[in-house]
Queue: 3 jobs
Job 1
Amino acid sequence: MRKCTQTIFLLLMLLLAVKINAQNGGKITGQVSDATTKLPLASVSVSVKGTQHGTISDDQGKFSLTAKQGDVLVVTSVGYEPMEIKVASANVSIILKSQGNDLTDVVVVGYGKQKKVNLTGAITSVKGEEMNARQTGNAYLALQGLAPGLTIRQLNGQPGDNGAFVRVRGEGSINAGSSPLVLVDGVEMDFNNLDMSTVESISVLKDASSASIYGSRAANGVILVTTKRGVNTDGKARVTLSSYVAIQNPTNMPDPVSAVEYMQLINQANKNNNANPQFSDQLINDYITLGPDNNTRYATDWRGMILKNSAVMQNHSFNMNAGTEKLRTVLSGSFYNQDGLIKNNNYKRYTLRSNTDYSLTKWLRATLDLNFRNGNLLEPSLSTPQSIIRKALSFVPIFSGKNNNGTWGYGQNGDNPIAVTEVGGTTNTKTPEVIVNGGIVITPLKGLTSTTNYTVRTSTTRVSSFISPYDTYEGGVFKATYPPDGTQGSESWTQVVYKLFRSQLNYNTILAHKHEIGLLAGVQTEETRVTGFNAGRKGYYFTGYDNLSNGDPATATNAGSTSELAMASFFGRINYAFAGKYLVELNGRWDASSRFARENWWAFFPSASVGWRVSEENFMKTLKPVLSNLKFRSSYGLLGNQSLSSYYPAVSTIDLGWSYWFNKQLNSGGAQTILANPNIQWEKSRQFNIGVDAGFFQNKLNFSFDYYRKYIYDLLQQLPVPYYVGMSAPFVNAGSMENKGWEASVNYNNKIGKVNYSITANLSDVKNKVLNLYGKQYISSTIIKEGYAINSYYGYKTSGYFQNQDEINKAPAQFNDKANTKPGYIRYQDLNGSGIVNDSDRVVLGNPFPRYEYSLDLKVNYKGFDLDIFLQGVGKRQYYISGYGAQPFYVGSTIFKSQTDTWSPTNSNAAYPLLLIDGSGVNPNYKISDKWIANAAYMRVKLVTLGYTLPKRITDKAKMGPVRFYVSAQNLLTISNFIKGYDVEAEVSSGQFYPLMRTTTFGVNVNF
């Protein structure tokens, strides 16, 4: 494979080294620019009037063709006013005026750009300024709601946690991953590591036509990010400074009961179970009359002592653009800092990026992009922030937290989350990343461009952790040291080195003014190497000396690992447009992956799409004032997926660390623990899409609609093997499922006097269905079963509560335990009529995937003022909540005020069943059932921004560019019927979570 790639690369370089000498005489050159933005325009048609001579501008807006002085050039581009210009010199500067619609947009597609009007695939393009207007530390949230078919759900508000649920058109696999491929300037990287001020545009590739050029990586969609590049500023630097400070508060959290309420409710729970009270009336009365003394009577406000009321987030960035005709560069940097809701929890991020283009000659250009990022996350060592917050909300208030003399209370069995947060030690995670991307762009022939890039991305994660035990006391008496293992220190280091080589040829031409042809061919190789090690020691006897060498050598541990993955690819595309009306696109990619055995390395992923611009037909001309644009399009193609967690599923591997007895001695060794399957191949996805785009009234009103079906087959799963085999099952290609859905988008732009406004609405829906698993089922609290959506909730149907003993006697036995069923217990339905409620009565109860996702964006600007109101929501969704989130007194926890509405003979329709102490967590009332599956539909005022730009007369006097001040509120208001105390969007299923934040931001953007 490597020799083949090298050969092709050499052939390409020999071809691209050819330079065509300028024709003698009659040759003119020029550049085409946008009248408003002053930026160069690509793919503009320039022809000599009355002749067949013509060309199109390149990505820098430049062109050359044969003409002489006095000739007339005809310049046309979709969305711009046509222009004729008389040739007066050998160099021509052309400035086009927009017709006032977005058909002029050039959209980034796989390995290139296309006019939006010529697209035949399902692509949503988002401009960088739309992202940059949403100042948030999580880049995915800035994209939320802007692209129909792209599901983004914020899982928590934890500093440094980039986690977000991201899907393009639904779930794509059971075991091979469902997240989209994210490429920044062609290089795979974490979307959340972006400085949004550097983003020029984002394209979401959703169907096979747009994504199949990425082959086996594209089954779950592709997100392409293009960063800003330098322009010719005549050597003058243009600088933009952006800064904001934000105050963050939790959107929603449960409210625990007081110490007195807790004791009263515990006694009530014991009474309900025919047990004696746990707390005497005298003790409760002492709490009420005397109050806690913080020595023998505690009323610890765990939430108040651990959680802050608010946290600060800030970001400061700069962007400098400077360039000449030959050298153009963009330099940007940012500093981001987010404090957490608990002590010793903070995330800082530094980024620095430079994109440089250097025109060595008229036909040779070099590019060099440098990107540096360093994240620094600080967290407590003894527990995760989510766990600490859960304890702050669920710990019993009569536990001791902090004694009057400043010593630490005993908490729960020595676990005191206040002490854990403040003195239990910290974990520091540093994540430096360096990306170097160099390229050569050659234009040896008119319309022919060669691009060759080599990229190295080095990502390192270094974790330093130290645990400092603390002593606990209660009633002035020493209780225990927690944790009992003493001081512990550890270091871990993981480095990912990713190398990418890509070389491609692009050829674009227009024949006879009607035939627009685009060709693409390329080769790409990728190599990934992951190296890691970790080490640790215990027994640090000198405070402040926490280096590994200061621990007890006898306790030393260490380990290391290395893994590699390689891919090779060939890709190509053909675009054809006739008379701007009939559009055809063909894509193909050959991929090889080292995950598979040699005979299964390669696979081919093709796609085809067509489009018809009906509005350009002669019979539609009379409708042009009303129906400005009408295009039908359709696509079909094959995509692949191979994103298993294992790099080597096709070969037998040996795991070390297994021990064997030989000659009555224990010896270390290795063993094969997982069966291999050399016959496995890619998961595959056949995708069909049909769509329509329409524009009305000079494209003031635009509408787009898509319907699609994704059929996913050859699923990679592990079918059962007999126990006597003694190893885990191998992966096999077996199974299929499908996603069906639709997307609609409407946009209206207009103005009333001096008031400009726009309204954008998006609505989408997708349904998943598992078709064939070859008899296998995946069952837990969820189920993966043929005929239902993946990971559907699986449990019991209920019909209220048992109200009396007579109802219990007449009803089917609940889990073979009728004698222990009480009035106030949940009544589970015997669906199979066996007379007993058991596992056989479980059914599918719904699924957690959102339906009818929608958004509404309202923008208004008047003179210097601008207002943006963004609403986002989900029309239908189920969500199962359990554990600390649903059960009062769950495994020794407290009870929330929202959970005190419990069943009694006088409160028969209560929200919660009979109140009982659930120390073991097996209370039969809290089995997974429709009782605990909440309605998670919602409508959220996601963002409201009010800005003001200083008048130009003021900034001109100060020799400045535009200056804008703004204030914004994120997650301002939510309307839902979700469980009280929890945010409907967050991941709170077990009651352990980091709350989402309501954020108020004050910022300024200054241009020089």
Job 2
Amino acid sequence: MYQIFLSITLIVGSLLAGAQPSVFGQSIPNHLRCEYLQNPLGIDTPHPRLSWLMEDERYGAKQTAYQILVGTDSLAVASGQGNIWNSQKVNSDHILVTYAGKKLIPFTRYYWSVKIWDKDGSASQPVVASFETGMMEMKNWKGTWISDGHTTGGNSINVKPAPYFRKEFATSKKVKSARAYIAVAGLYELSINGERIGDHRLDPMFTRFDRRNLYVTYDVTRQIQSGKNAVGVLLGNGWYNLQSTAVWYFDRAPWRDRPTFCMDLRMTYEDGSVEVVSTERDWKTDLSPVIFNSIYTAEHYDARLEQPGWDKAGFEDAKWKNALLRPAPSQNIVAQQLHPIRNVEKIPAKTMKKKSDTRYIFDLGRNISGVSQLRVKGEAGTEIRLVHAEILRPNDEVDIKNIAEHYRPTDNSDPFSTDIFILSGKGEETFMPRFNYKGFQYVEVTSTKPVTLTADALTGWFMHSDLPPVGKIETSNPLINKIWQAANSSYLANLFGYPTDCPHREKNGWTGDANYAVDLGLYNFDGITVYEKWLADHRDEQQPNGLLPNIIPTSGWGYDWATGPDWTCTIAVIPWAVYQFYGDSRLLADCYESLQLYTDHLMEVAPDGLTDWGLGDWVPVKSKTSREYTSSVYYYRVVSIMAKTAQLFGKTDDFTKYSAQAEKVKSAINQKYLNTETGIYGTGNQTELSLALHWGIVPDELKAKVAASLAKRVEADGKHLDVGLLGTKAILHALSENGYADLAYTLAAQDTYPSWGHWIAKDNATTLYEDWTAIGEKRESSLNHIMFGEVDAWFYSGLGGILPDPEHPGFKNILLKPNFVTGLNEANVSFDSPYGKIESRWERKKKNVVYHITVPANATADFYLPSGYKTGKVTLSDGKVVSISETGKGIYRLVAGSYHLELKKQ
């Protein structure tokens, strides 16, 4: 009895645990994850990754060994027995392990435990988590792909209303567990017995539909009732059947068709028998009140067409017709293994202006991605229009010109960013779009007949991929804090299962924008699942010769513009960044062939080392930089990553080949663009000097001279930025890493044009802009873009000094290189690494600095003492005085623990 009680306690404790502190001086494995998800359902990976972190607050805490058990009986696993895999005790400090047990079978819940040994050889109690396999293979699907068969003029893609589908079935046995597996080309909402299933939005994630489709798994055990049941599915168009016309040609996508889906509802009964309710022709279908839906523009809903109870048993569906069988959109249907999109934050309207009985203007007070939700009461047939905008002019004009720029409507039936809601007249009604999202701060509500709205009638929902936050910045400068918040908001507003450039005008997966925002993303959010999904999209879109488009996924647009290495180097940059931040090489391995194909294509295009294939320093302030120079720098970056990746995987011939090419590219750049006498690249503008310094082009003996040239250039530019997208990524790092951290901070903290702070000081911006100008100035464009967001990442590396160690990736060893910049009194920087929370917090005490460091258990750190300081007393969190070892000049090795350092100005 005690053993059973212990097992249940372990299981419940582990499932509830987020991050529990160690107790009684013991180590505890915590934050158990499978494929970077907690207790996931529907895992398709035959060898999933299992990970954990070590909770132990003791000084010098480290893991010396681990043991993993995997089994199908939770009580057995909790009590130390694994019938599927027993790794035995492995003497290792690894916290990321690939499953290596018996072949996993589909539709099975596996329980796994990990026990760890600390530095003293003491073992922890095992902690238990779970994962459940999904289809695993295509052959395990039972259902058929179905659609509704409605046509307009003989063509199904032009049918506007979204289709309903329903199926009734009965159960006579007691259900032990039930899972719904649903794959959709388009979007969907699933319900069982009138209850919507799950809290995801815009599922499944956007892919190249004719090459790969995603399915989602739900636990629906609670929703299945004894006796009669009904399943309901509402399909939306998404990117699969885009009916809006814009410059990106998604309306001409080769996969385009009426939405379709396949579903298996798999029920396991208490007696062990299994029954599967699948999509077949006997499902019934009809048109819904969603009379139009476009992921690009908006959604229209006619509440008069509602059919109450359509997704419940007993509904009269005699007038509904049978579903139509359809071919599968692709032969690659795989599990959606990533953090989903959700309505993450509810945002009440900050103000409401009543302009008349038929016109109201709501201000959310911040720019978001997502939807608005309206409560309203009025006469049947009253048409409500909700126009979503970023800009409200002084005359109360809601202006969408800046975000409708690329829209090319064929008529006026699909107004941009404008939801249409037609009232049923049945009391108070609520409307929120199902298959759309927008970027906006203001909502103008107009009606064809008078309605009365209150300030709380409209609410905004901030929607995005719901990634766990892992980083935090807080300083004594409120402007820095606001820039960090704005950058994070822009990053999230542009994350919908893939990184986008703006949540309104384009919603495209621009490679360049994501390239320059990846460090921001990884410092602030646990983003590996989204990046792994998006790099699979890269592999889907790659041409046989290695070429990649500039937007991914794409309808076919973008293979002939802005496809150079400055933009599409994402195939190299993002897998390498993920490896640095997580210490996980799987994405690099998955992308190796694609990266090699891409690199070889670059070498064919530019065998001698220079290329002008690229877009260049996009939207600079005023400077002009040679496109050949910038593209060649990114060519060097790609080949360098290719060489390092080959070395990582022991591919000696590849390493030799690409290392030699990297040196050739670097030499060609320096030969043509570097003046060794003056230390100037090209014309000596900020972008040219920054790129050479940051990306390792400058010969070691000339770094100081080139850095001095950059500092002089910034001074001559009034200590303001004069860079575009490429320069923005490099300039702060180039300065702070080469002795000019104070100047870098001055640029980051500026509040006059051009600067990040200018947007906030002038417009009270809550997101980052697409151009250095502000509202009402020239080139006014999108107000919610992420491409200038590198300043956010610099707060972590430049102020907090938190950097991954390339020799020990995943923050196994942390490089701490803080800069105690003039003009800032305090900086509190924290980051939840794969090993736990890293803290780098400093504050001035007159001329001196008090520096607080937390190195998580099972990790170490190298602290680089800033120039001009010397170490004083070093104490731990409990007040104990310790000494720290100097391993090099001004470099100190720290073991796990929380430190308080007194640093004295010399």
Job 3
Amino acid sequence: MTAALCKQSHPDRPHHPGKEPANRIPPAAFPARYANPFSVVGIDLDTRSFILIAIPGILLGSRSAAADKVTYDDHILPLFQQSCLNCHNPDKAKGGLDLSTFSGAMKGGSGGKIAEPGDAGSKLIAVVLQTSEPKMPPEGDKLGADQINLLKAWIEGGLLETKSSAARKPTKPKFDTALTSAPDAKPDGPPPMPEHVLLEPPQLASRAASVHAIASSPWAPLLAVTGQRQVLLFDTNSLELTGILPFPEGDPVSLAFTPNARYLIVGGGVPGKSGVTVTFDVVTGERMLVAGKEFDSVLAADLKPDLSMIATGSPSRLIKIWKSEDGSQLHSIKKHTEWVTAVDFSPDGILLATGDRNGGVWVWEADSAGEFHTLRAHQAAITATAFRADSNLLASASEDGTVRFWEMNGGTEVKKIDAHPGGVLAFAWTRDGSFITSGRDRVVKLWKPDFTLLREFKEQPDLPIAVAFDSEGKRAFAADYRGQITVWDVASGNPAGSFDANPPPIAQRLTSLREEIRKHPEAVATAEGAANTAKQKLGEARKALADAEAALNQSREIHAAAGKGRQEIERRLAALNQQLPPKKEQAAQSRAKLDAVTAEVTAKRAAIAAVDQRIATADQEAQAAAAELKRLEDELAKARAENRNDALVGLEAGIGAQRPKSEAATTALEQIRSERAREVAALAEIEARQKAATEETVKLNAEVAALSKDAETLPATLAGATQAAAAAEAKVKEREVAVPPARDAVPPIEKAANDSAAALEQTKQRLPWLQDRERHWTAAEVNAQAIKARVAAELQNTEAESLVAEFEELAKSVDGQLVALAPVRQALADLDAKHAALIKTDPPTDPKTLTDSEAALAAARKNLADLEAKLTASSAELAEAKAKVDGTLPAAQALLTQAEDLKARYLALRAAK
């Protein structure tokens, strides 16, 4: 159900018990005609001792004007005489009920009181409306509307006996069904949480029983859990017990919060015998409304979001709708073919969904009870019907293992989840559309709004038969068949705690707390010793780890150095093995190259020598040709000088022939000389190459010699380095083996030390908490005593009220007898005078007349004696009634005073916190 703003105010009842004024009615004596009803028999009755005390919530207050009053004497007795007294009179008194007198009507019958002041839903109204068994009258037509309205007016007017009577104050608070805002809106102010509610379990058991249902407040951190003839209220944050709601009608089976989170409707009873729903105010713990009385346990119940009606389901197979205002029945729907196991109003209050043990699911119009949808799909019992917060989607969970989701416009199935093999046992929504399920597979599952699985909690210790989220959807709760409630954090999936549905009595809690407080110094000393020991062990473990790690690091450094040296040698050896053969080859090649170059030098030098020889020959030839040319030129010059013309031609011809020869010889010589220059240059290049080859050969030979030397020494060096590295590695392994145990030893010891330190701190801080808890439970114990005393005062006052009513009835009887006695005495006096006159008559009266007169006189005297004897007996009975009233009223006042004193003490203890 969605939430609704519904601030319930009760102007006739304070919000905080224990702070209300006494509100007593001013003392008033009994009516004047009963001022001294025993005067005729010499009994003195002080009417001042019969002042009615007014216990808040029980006794009487003034009502409307006398002209508007409906009274027992003037209106109700005539109605009873017409329709009821044939069966409910002093002679028959069927069901132990006598309606012929006001006191009898107030006492009720074997089934308890038939009417409560101000409660139009009293049993009397239910039976005459014929919405509850036994239907009255059992035969013929039921009472007319005017007669029923008269009964309602009498009840609402305070059950007046006469116009001068004081109206009785309602014995239970009025359940205000008016809403002040939308049902789905969050209420203003802090969320409703229990205040001054009973914490003493009225029912104690050796172990927790199976939890039938759990329900989470829509706005407050409050979880309701069914127990044995009680409902337990727990804070969803602290998981502490915050209140207990007694359910003496039997075992509670179903739970549902109202949208504003202020009220909790509880359904249950005794299987096969009786059932009922009780609506509690979770703030005060008061029973606000009792409705839906059945002849079998109520299996499912819900309150309409506007608080106007209650729906119940039971083994009767009927869905019953009850009016919240007076508890009267509005509708009875006969459609289901099996026990009705699920009931849920839609958050908008328009629809009502119900499910049965045969898999049937129906949706009804809430106000008219008209059929809206028939949802057929499930193959086994329905374990839950639940509307989503928007009222558009209905979930139905079943023992067939599925959860089905139905849209409400057309009633079609939009999603089916095979949630739990073997059967779904419970289902619950959050406001954001997430949901939680549990099943016979002993698994609890959390689902996202898109119907995908968020996470699951497997292997629960027992069947998880009830589930819920907290008001914020942050925690998930599951209750199992053993009465254990397990809590998880929704975001992380981690366990968040657990508790059970069988809280210990307050006295046991206080005994444990006080014993722990007494032993607290010893506990602190023990915790300090443990913390110091753990701290010392942690230091030793850390030192052992540090030593082991230091030794390991040292060994690793040595091993690393050895390994590095070995690797260097291996690198060098590997490089040597790679370098030496090619280096030798290079040296050989270099030597061959040198030899070749040397051969070239030798050849080139021989070639130059040959060229030199050729130069010499060519030089000789050139010189000879030049000398011949010069000779011829000289001869030509001489011949010219001598003018030997005949010789000139020959000489010029000779010179012309000789000059080419001389030039050719010179040219040949120059060419040979050029050739020699080239050969010399070539020799220089070859010699340079020879020199380079020689240098390279020398270098390579040196390198080969060095490498060859290393090749001889490095293997031995490598063997030594390998041996050293192996020894270092063995040492590392030895010390590596020692480190993990030392390292592994630290975390548990560190955890133990931290735990010990935390335990010490927690132990130190526990004392204030223990003292606070002791104050809390001491206050709770006093409050329980105050509540018990108040209940006892109410019972005692009810008894006193009944005794006063009986006394008034007896006083009226004595008054009537006194009135009836006067004419009898007068008649006797008249008969006595008449008889005396007959005796004195002259002539004497006929003997028969005297005999008849004497007989009449004797009869009158006997009648008077009988009436006086009856008056004496009635007077004695009235005196006895007075004594009872005298004893009961002070006791009731004493109990009330005790309750008020205890309440004040309780509030003082609470304030001391």
